[in-house]
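Proteins fold. Shown next:

***
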Amino acid sequence: MKQFLKLALVLLFGVTAMAQAKETVDLLVRGDYVLAMDAQDRLIENGAVAVRGDRIVAVGDRQQLSTRYRSAKTLDGAGKILMPGLVNGHTHTSMTLFRGMVDDLELMDWLNNYVFPMEGRFVNSNFVRIGTRLACYEMIQGGTTSFVDMYFHPEVIAEVVIECGLRAIVASPHIDVPSPGFKGWDDSFAAARKFVSEWQGRHPRITPGFAPHAPYTVSPQNLANTAEVAGAMGAPVSIHLAEAPAESDYVMKNFGTTPIQHVNSTGLLDLSPIGAHMVQLNAEDIAIAAAKGVGAIHNPTSNLKLGAGISPVADMVAGGVQVGLGTDGAASNNDLDLWEEMRLAALIHKVKALDPTAVPAPMALDMATRMGARAIGLGDQTGRLEPGLQADLIQVDYSRTRQQPLYNVRSHLVYILDSQDVVTTIVAGQILMQDRKVLSLDREQIRKDVAAIRAEIIAALEQGRQ
């Protein structure tokens, strides 16, 4: 009997010691499959990710991590794929409030006759706050964890991003012509400088930047001014670039070259800017973009809807350009669904090249995660599941009958699953959505606020038709 008690005590204290020896983490997230998108392109069956604070501590086998770590909270992974959060490289969040306002128009008609006038009438800090909350709610539900925004009242956008828990590069727009709250270049550029100065280092999930609108709305001298100031401040730059035939025609007529080569002559490309759209490019343009480290953001839905063309994505990737995906604003998309962009990116280039291998599913997935993060300059923080990186990850449910059977995880994510299948969204270690319920924003208040703005816009549209 004494020997039995002695053995029991040894076993008890041994188990207790083992439990005490475990490292403590804040969160353990599991998945039937863990798609790391790391340098080894690991796909781990029955895997998990351990999170402490805002960082990933370990990625590996579920049983091994459960043995090694004691977690304050564990998220089950049955029927789920665990992967990096998606990266939206170009959007205008507040334009969700213009979603479906006017459709099926050519870019310049859409901008000059509808968008710019309605922005001048409605855009203020309240409009931006409500529109950004609506956009962030949609992105959280769709598994987007990082985005690049370009819109007015950037300080309000940054506040909403902090509130909702997402990660963003918030680029302050400046343009030569009058815009909401500004007379022209001088005051809009001064406001951008002030915003960047005040927000640099202010919050770990906010990166402030400059957003000269486009080569057809910003003079060469002002593009050069942006390059000089942004370079001195070490701030990122986002710009609409080589977006549509009308832009290419304007630049050729006025400067005798292509948009890429024109902007390069101003020194702006020396900052490796984020180039939104990048549709109208020739071989020399691609070589310049690769040499300068331009991050190209492919917006397939917006480009198709506005008839802007199809970006030479396969050629850019082959040429060494980092290509990410973007939704553009909801006024020209009409949603912020990166799963749609992934699928379109994988499909339209096959038709353009008459080659089903042109943009395979793994490349489209790469553009939405790892390569997309590199394209916007956040590749050292997010886009992969690796120890030391930010804990930006999502769980995607693949257990429904319509999703069966599963043979290839990467192709399943691109061709079968969609934004409605995202069940968990985590940014910087914080759970923003669990079981499809967004935890960081008030859904009913957003719907109420949006309805009020909608009524005002409808009244303005009806007045304009009279």
About this structure: The chain has a mean pLDDT of 94. The longest strand covers residues 23-35. Residues 361 and 411 are 5 Å apart (CA to CA).
